[in-house]
Amino acid sequence: MPGHKGKKKSQNELGFIVDLAHTVNDTFEALTGKSVPEWFEEFRQRPRELPPGEQYTPGQPGMPLADAYAVMGLPQTATLEEVKRNYKHLAAIFHPDKGGYKEAMILLNNAYERICGEKKREG
Predict the structure, then answer these.
(1) Residue 40: which domain range?
(2) In whole angstroms, what is the distance from residue 97 CA to residue 21 CA?
(3) DSSP string for 78-101
(4) Alpha-carbon torsion 60, 61, 66, 71, what sign?
(5) Residue 105: which CATH number?
(6) Burial group, residue 12, by CB count within 10 angstroms (0-12, 13-18, 19+)
(7) For residues 111 and 116, what is the distance between their CA atoms, to the nearest angstrom?
(8) Could you read off the pLDDT of 63-114 as tens digits, one per residue?
(9) What confidence tens digit (pLDDT) does each residue in 68-82 have?
(10) Which of 24, 30, 99, 108 has the most beta carbons within 10 angstroms of its beta carbon?
(11) How many structural domains comprise the chain?
């Protein structure tokens, strides 16, 4: 039964992705004290206080830049190419079609947009 072996392999790969997403989510919660949906909900609101040196600009995602880098798992010295590469990697894990979470993907998108917007203003 050649079809049976392929199905088992794809189930194992899907299981691995789901397990990895759970591990990342658990790690995220351990580091921040909040679940991904809770953190996402917090960033859907305009921040009450921004870190020193940052200003709120209408139309700008409400996520502080430092938090955007933390979500992406990158240092603030990361290049735009590193940001793009890391975004693609994380999107492959957290995208709902890949077994991830909608909230995590929205948070990732907001972080990516925030960093890219800042990099464009700098450059």
Answers:
(1) 2-122
(2) 12
(3) --HHHHHHHHHHHHHHH-GGGT--
(4) negative
(5) 1.10.287.110
(6) exposed
(7) 9
(8) 888 899 999 999 999 999 999 999 999 999 989 898 888 888 999 999 999 9
(9) 999 999 999 999 999
(10) 108
(11) 1
